[in-house]
Every structure is written in structure tokens, then in C-alpha cells.
């Protein structure tokens, strides 16, 4: 099965309903979306071959939706690139993927041209989204040839966010993406034609991955007019579209909550916020639940098993048990999840080890990178690099990436646990805990602290606060007070930068 069939079916059932919106304005109905996708597909087949990688480099725009389906109808592989990457990083992805075409937004086109100069990707054809060539492509004849039904065909070459090194291309097949889509509808949220997906997070990643589930159910895709995440605009859109849902990174949830609190606003049609991609601290989750009500579900996944390893259901968010709220929930439908030791042997309930998973969502490997593939896929399992443990009820709790665990005086310390405690201090706004090499202890625990505006915090006060709830050896030996924390384009704290800061003294 080809993902294009999701749009084909939706267009047959809901031809006249709005499929894509820019802000509040309808961009295309389902019948128009299908037709445009097929026209662009014909344009792609006129210049390329099945299996070609077609890059998309743009901030969130309504055209993203037709491009995905056009590329799939043409039997090619979408290669979305985060718009906030440096042009040189964008070129690296074009080089690595060998993309033959890049659809680029007018905003990014200039920077890309410069960065392509002298690159091996210089022959990659540039088509400006909304430009003359693009418009001509979307106005031609529809693709009338066969649509490749092979579920193993590459549908999305997904470049990881690269918090631990250079970005790698996870090869996601149509089968992987369908398994993800079905599991989303089964585990996370029920979607129908009266629902809308607000693309506030990058469509090159989580938000774009959810597009297929919403198209399959005849629901709306809403791209904010700002092409970005503006909390006030987001809240407005929630009043203007039916049954609004969105995927948000935890830092975006926090910004939305602050905006809602500031304006005393409760968005009328906010149905669902799915968060994940990084840790959501229990304290923040409780505050957000108090403001928005029971609209939250959490997902745990990674590019290699997109959005689909575990999820914490909406009803679990009603729990007053911190262990439930601090977990990533249960293994997803159709995904086996286990926790293993350093030799890959399963560990008993309660013990911390590396999280592994297998199932139809797991990628085939990394593009042109057999070494990294052999490290990640072993014995049919995906080794996630995340540490965690199951409890007796089946809840999976993520500790940290194995690389982030601090080993001090021979004891393992999970930064997340210390961060959760520090965030309960009323004057702490943000925190990141990491290890610093130390001749005596191997590593010591260091906390970078961002204070709430106008508050002074003393290390002594933080020590006292920690002593009240965690073992002394986990308590930071050093506190560094900073204005803000370095974050990547997905809002994830870049621990690597903080560690480098420590190494530099
Ligand atoms: P990416 O491949 O860029 O989506 O990054 C995936 C990584 O983000 C995972 O391996 C985890 O380390 C982290 N992550 C994803 N979801 C969650 C979550 N719900 N809670 C904490 N960390 C998460």
C-alpha cells in the first residue's frame, strides 16, 4: 500500500470539504488537494525516476501537504529538512541523500544558493515553492500511470535532529509510516472529519508525521499564517477551527500555557495536545493540565521508530501518581518494547537498561550508513540509546540517553531525576543537569539553573531543597546560574554545548 491511497480515499469520501488551510483561509478542498498532488507527481515523473529523493526545505507552508502526497504518488521519497538549519547543514543533507530536486521556500532560497556553491549537491534542481516552475507543475496534467503499491518502498528519508552528532537519514518505508498512522489513531487520539491538525511544530518532523492520520480521516490541516509557532496565534486558531489538535514539543506546551495564563484565555476548540520528543517535567505537566484541562497525551518515539515506541494516554493524565505522570506510558500497539542490559539480555521489571523495540514502525536502516545501521539494528531490535525501566504495571519510565547518565563515585545518576526535583523549587524556571569530569569522583553533578525573573537563588537553598527529596550523592556539587539554556531547532536542550562549556572551565 502506498500512502497516497489515504488521500485518494479521503478525496472520494469528502471531496468538497476543506483539506488544507492557511490560518483561517481555505487553501484546498480534498478533491483539489488530490488533483494538485497528482499534477505535481506527473511533473516529478517527467524529470525523475521512482526512488528519487525529493527534498523539501521550507518553513511550515500549506504546500507541504500536496508535496508529500505528490512525491508518494510519483513513487519517490520525501526528504524534508528543518527550515531552521544552517544553509550548510541543509546542503549536507542534500549531499548525503543525493536528492535530485529540492523544493525550497522563497525565504530559504537565497541562503541555499550561496551554500550550494562548490558543493557536490550543486546539480540538485531547485524549485521555488509558489514560483513559476512550481505553478506550472501544479497546472499540468494529472499523473495517470500506476502508483507503486510496494509497502517497502522508501517514503520518507527522515534526518534525525542530531543532538548526539551529525544528522543521519532514517529510511522510513510506506509500511513504517502506515504502522505509525494506524497506531496513532488506535492509541493516541480518535480523529474524524470534524477535527483539525494545527501545524505549529515543524512539518519536517513530528507535526508532518501526523499529517497522514488526519488526511486518512478527512480532517483539516491548518498551517498558521505566521508559518511558525506563535502562542497567541495558536490560541486564536483554536477558536476558529473545529476539534483542534497539535503535536507540540514540551517547551512549546510551556510557552502556550504562559500565554494562556497571561491572557486568561481558554481556547474553545482545543481537543488534543500530543507532546513528546523531549522530557516533560511533572511540575510543568500539572500546571498545563490545570490551565487546559484533560487534553494531553504523550508520545515517546524517535526518527528511527517515528512517534511510536510508547505513549501515555489521555486518561493516565488524570492520575495523581507522579510515577505515572513522569513516565512515557505503555508500549504502543504493534510495537514490542523491552529493556536490556549491556549485552542485550532482557532485564527484570524495575531495572534500568537500554530501551529496545521492534515492529512495523522500525526503520530499515540509515541511508548509506551501514556502520550506524549495524549499531542501531541488532537481532531484529532497534537499540534506541535511551535508558529506562518498566514498572509492574507496564509503565515505561525514561531515564536519560545512555550518554547523558552521570557516573559519580561509581553510582549512576540520572539527570532527569535531579532536574525534576530542582524544578519543584518555586524560584527555578528552567534547569539542565549534566556531568563534569572530576579527578576524584569520575564525574560530578552540575546543574545549570535559569531563575524565575527577578528571583535570586542561593546554592545553599537549592541544596536544602534537594536534600529534602533525593539521596545526597545525587545532589549537584555545582550550580551555574545562566540567563538561558542552549536549545536546538526542536527546543531540545543541547547538553553537548553545556558539557563543552564545562570542559572549557
Ligand atoms: P528524534 O529522533 O529527534 O525525534 O529524537 C528522539 C529522542 O528524543 C528519543 O530517543 C528520546 O531521547 C527523546 N524523546 C522522545 N520522546 C520523548 C519523551 N516523550 N520524553 C522524553 N524524551 C523523549
Automatic annotation (TrEMBL):
Domain AMP-dependent synthetase/ligase as annotated: residue spans: 8-367
Domain AMP-binding enzyme C-terminal as annotated: residue spans: 417-492
Signal sequence annotation: none
InterPro entries: AMP-bd_C (IPR025110), AMP-bd_C_sf (IPR045851), AMP-binding_CS (IPR020845), AMP-dep_synth/lig_dom (IPR000873), ANL_N_sf (IPR042099), ATP-dep_AMP-bd_enzyme (IPR050237)
Protein name per the record: AMP-binding protein
Organism encoding this protein: Azospirillum melinis
Amino acid at each position: 500500500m502506498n500512502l497516497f491511497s489515504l488521500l485518494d480515499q479521503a478525496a472520494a469520501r469528502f471531496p468538497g470539504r476543506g483539506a488544507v488551510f492557511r490560518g483561517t483561509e481555505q487553501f484546498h478542498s480534498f478533491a483539489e488537494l488530490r488533483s494538485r498532488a497528482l499534477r505535481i507527481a506527473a511533473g516529478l515523473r517527467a524529470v525523475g525516476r521512482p526512488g528519487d529523493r525529493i527534498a523539501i526545505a521550507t518553513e511550515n507552508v500549506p504546500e507541504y501537504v500536496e508535496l508529500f502526497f505528490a512525491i508518494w504518488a510519483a513513487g519517490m521519497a520525501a526528504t524534508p529538512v528543518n527550515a531552521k538549519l544552517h544553509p550548510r547543514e541543509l546542503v549536507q543533507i542534500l549531499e548525503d541523500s543525493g536528492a535530485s530536486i529540492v523544493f525550497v521556500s522563497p525565504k530559504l532560497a537565497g541562503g541555499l544558493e550561496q551554500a550550494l556553491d562548490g558543493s557536490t549537491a550543486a546539480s540538485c534542481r531547485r524549485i521555488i515553492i509558489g514560483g513559476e516552475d512550481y505553478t506550472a507543475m501544479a497546472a499540468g496534467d494529472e499523473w495517470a500511470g500506476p502508483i507503486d503499491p510496494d509497502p517497502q518502498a522508501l517514503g520518507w528519508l527522515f534526518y534525525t535532529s542530531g543532538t548526539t552528532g551529525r544528522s543521519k537519514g532514517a529510511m522510513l518505508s510506506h509500511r513504517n509510516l502506515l504502522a505509525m498512522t494506524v497506531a496513532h489513531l488506535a492509541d493516541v487520539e480518535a480523529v474524524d472529519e470534524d477535527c483539525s491538525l494545527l501545524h505549529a511544530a515543524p512539518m519536517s518532523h513530528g507535526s508532518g508525521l501526523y499529517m497522514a492520520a488526519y488526511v486518512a480521516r478527512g480532517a483539516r490541516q491548518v498551517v498558521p499564517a505566521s508559518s511558525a509557532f506563535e502562542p497567541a496565534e495558536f490560541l486564536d486558531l483554536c477558536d476558529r477551527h473545529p476539534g483542534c489538535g497539535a503535536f507540540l514539543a514540551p517547551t512549546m506546551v510551556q510557552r502556550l500555557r504562559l500565554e494562556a495564563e497571561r491572557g486568561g484565555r481558554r481556547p474553545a476548540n482545543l481537543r488534543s495536545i500530543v507532546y513528546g520528543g523531549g522530557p516533560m517535567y511533572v511540575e510543568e505537566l500539572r500546571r498545563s493540565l490545570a490551565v487546559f484541562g484533560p487534553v494531553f497525551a504523550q508520545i515517546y518515539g524517535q526518527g528511527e521508530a517515528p512517534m511510536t515506541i510508547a505513549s501515555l494516554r489521555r486518561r493516565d493524565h488524570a492520575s495523581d501518581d507522579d510515577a505515572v505522570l513522569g513516565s512515557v506510558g505503555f508500549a504502543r500497539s504493534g510495537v514490542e518494547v523491552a529493556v536490556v542490559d549491556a549485552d542485550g539480555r532482557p532485564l527484570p521489571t524495575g531495572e534500568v537498561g537500554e530501551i529496545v523495540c521492534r515492529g512495523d514502525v522500525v526503520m530499515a536502516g540509515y541511508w548509506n550508513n551501514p556502520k550506524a545501521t549495524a549499531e542501531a539494528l541488532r537481532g531484529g531490535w532497534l537499540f534506541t540509546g535511551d535508558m529506562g525501566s518498566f514498572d509492574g504495571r507496564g509503565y515505561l519510565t525514561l531515564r536519560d540517553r545512555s550518554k547523558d547518565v552521570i557516573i559519580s563515585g561509581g553510582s549512576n545518576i540520572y539527570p532527569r531525576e535531579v532536574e525534576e526535583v530542582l524544578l519543584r523549587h518555586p524560584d527555578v524556571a528552567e534547569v539542565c543537569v549534566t556531568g563534569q569530569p572530576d579527578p576524584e569522583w569520575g564525574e560530578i553533578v552540575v546543574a545549570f539553573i535559569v531563575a524565575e525573573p527577578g528571583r535570586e537563588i542561593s546554592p545553599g537553598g537549592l541544596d536544602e531543597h534537594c536534600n529534602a527529596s533525593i539521596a545526597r550523592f545525587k545532589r549537584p556539587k555545582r550550580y551555574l546560574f545562566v540567563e538561558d539554556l542552549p536549545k536546538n531547532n526542536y527546543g531540545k536542550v543541547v547538553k553537548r554545548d553545556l558539557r563543552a562549556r564545562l570542559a572549557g572551565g
